[in-house]
Design brief:
Layout: H1 10-19, H2 29-42, E1 46-52, E2 56-63, E3 69-71, H3 77-80, E4 87-89, H4 102-105, E5 112-119, E6 125-133, H5 141-175, E7 180-185, E8 191-194, H6 196-202, H7 206-209, H8 214-217, H9 223-234, E9 240-248, E10 254-264, E11 270-277, H10 279-315, H11 323-353, E12 362-365, H12 366-376, H13 378-383, E13 387-390, E14 396-400, H14 402-419, E15 425-433, E16 442-448, H15 472-475, H16 482-492, E17 496-502, E18 506-517
Parallel strand pairs: 13-15
Antiparallel strand pairs: 1-2, 1-6, 2-3, 4-5, 5-6, 7-8, 7-11, 9-10, 10-11, 12-14, 14-18, 15-16, 16-18, 17-18
Length: 519
Amino acid sequence: MQKPPLPANEAARLASLADHYILDTPSEPVFDAITTLAAKICDTPYAFIALLDSRRQWFKSTYGMELKESNRDDSFCGHAILNKNLMEVPDASRDPRFHDNPFVVSDFHARFYAGKPIHSADGQALGTLCVMDREPRELEREQTDAMEALAQLVETLLNTRRQEAKFAWLGSVLDGMSEEVALFDMESLRYVYANASALEELDTDIDALKEATPLDMMPELDREGLEALLKPLRQGEKEVVISEQMRRRKGGVLYPVEIRLQIVKTAVPVFASVVRDISERKAIERAQRELISTVSHELRTPLGSIDGALSVITSGMAGPVPEPVAEMATLAQRNSQRLVRLVTEFLDLEKAELGRVDFNIKPLDLNEFLNEAISANQGFAHKHGVKLELGAIPPVAVLADADRLQQVLTNLLSNAIKFSPEGETVRVAAQRLDERHGDGDRVRISVIDRGPGIPEAFRPYLFEKFSQAQGNEAKRPGTGLGLALVKAYVEGMQGQVHFESQVQSGTTFHVDLPMEETP
């Protein structure tokens, strides 16, 4: 007897077999019907569906015998899976591979064998559909064709089982999540799936849910708001949309949630939503904000006193001081002033985020305003060896708060100056936005530099608090709050801020604001 050799892809084959979750499962009528058909069509006393794991051949279904499994080393099927097509053994007693095989010399008295390999969807041979007879013989052409067809049917059933097992496993994983996960149709917006957390929170079952839409289950949402969230996904502008909403529990209590929406591109694409309760996160953020706000307020007064005292020392008003002391006092003053700026900017940003900034919006002559901004930052530019240049300005008035807009431009200009090589020019330009930009009553102010550009990996975090590109903290010190404050102020004035950047070529920040024409 020859022990069947292992296939070259044995590890992948065993992994695919395990992935079907079929081994050691109870008998099933559909598989029993296939072995019965195989035995009747081929006119044999035995037929079976055998699957081969690392040490045994296990029978999913048998006809004519009660065997559940046998040693893989004794199996005919171990040889059969090495072939792509049906393997026939006309007379096992005369075949050197099987002449002393236990199936041949035992009461089975096996002589004839025919086995068709059963493959997984990814092409791995999992086992065989086999027939066995006590007499030497060969199959007729019609019987061979029938075996091929029945083996294909077994493959289809196993692939379906694999998909069902995957869905069951995935469903159990999703049901174990604390987040609410749901899928809904892209056109009708009707639900097609929801995990256990979503069903519990929405207080419904899956059958009732499939007749509803998110608008039915979450009254806090309106169609216009939902479509606005879905629009960037439908148009391919974004892969994921994140929104924070207030939800109402079954008891009527409102709580904050984060909703992540995206398109799952299956055979029939659907919207997927993940809803997470962020009450704890919001409470922590609120506590952090209150703590930092309190500390910031308490720091402002002593820092002002320290800065004033150091100014007296460095100016010589308190009398001459030794050179080493003067240098140390100058360094201390510079750091105290940086702390004052940090505290001030943080408090300003906190007010803006909480909506506590009163914006005094009025028409500002754009040409006059930008000239003032250039003049105000000329000294800082000269210190860094950078030129400031003002381009042609359209004769319009921008609707903004003069103090806040001046702070916005100062932050953008100071960044552009700090990141520009010595001898370069930072340009300030402005233009009216026409219909190509989708809005004809706005003006765009642009601050253009020729610096190193913004690293690709850092761009998504550019407007976040305390964000600074890696390696820039020491070379170009700042608070990390400037751009977050710019964004908060521009949006508070009903505008938008965005940027364009190319590594080693420079960056342009755009501030789009409402305008009115000047006479």
